[in-house]
Amino acid sequence: QVQLVESGGGLVQAGGSLRLSCAASGRTFNLNHMGWFRQAPGKEREFVGGIVWGSGSTYYADSLKGRFTVSRDNAKKTVYLEMNSLKPEDTAVYYCTAALGTGQFDYWGQGTQVTVSS
User: Fold this and answer.
1) Which of 31, 29, 9 has the alpha carbon at shortest distance from 18?
2) In whole angstroms, how far apart are CA 55 and each of 11, 74, 93?
3) Phi, psi at residue 100, to the nearest 5°?
4) Ordered DSSP codes for 50-69
5) CA 111 – CA 36 distance, rounded (Å)
6) Can you give the pLDDT at residue 37?
7) Are the C-beta atoms of 46 and 38 separated by less than 8 Å?
8) 2: exposed, middle or buried (C-beta count within 10 Å: 0-12, 13-18, 19+)?
């Protein structure tokens, strides 16, 4: 089992920046990917970005490339989501997720609220 704990959400004005953190604990020895999804009110959960844990390679939803950056601190088993030029439509609950070995994103954090005011 892997436990994920997010932090860093909050209220920010449009155009501002915010950094989310997600610390992994438990059976992290075979972390393969970690990532971020978000869910806005009344909408389905959507993929934001991810990182290959071993190499540090990142990948993003096309619509968010250039504004959002995923990074990791291997020693701290922590993944980050740096969000810049935030827009009101970025308002959502942001979830951290992890995939072990050859599995899918099977582990999820509790979510952290990000609210962008206009």
Assistant:
1) 9
2) 33, 10, 28
3) -105, 145
4) EEETTT--EEE-GGGBTTEE
5) 10
6) 98
7) yes
8) buried
Q: How big is the chain, counted in residues?
A: 118
Query: Biggest alpha carbon distance in the chain?
Result: 42
Q: What is the pLDDT of residues 5-61, one digit of tens each?
A: 999 999 999 999 999 999 999 989 899 999 999 999 999 999 999 999 999 999 999
Pair of tokens at residue 14: 């449009």
Name the residue type at position 9.
G
Q: What is the CA radius of gyration of the chain?
A: 13
**Unique residue bearing structure tokens 């059976």:** 27
Which residues neighbour 40 within 8 Å (Cβ) at sequence distance 6 or greater? 89, 91, 92
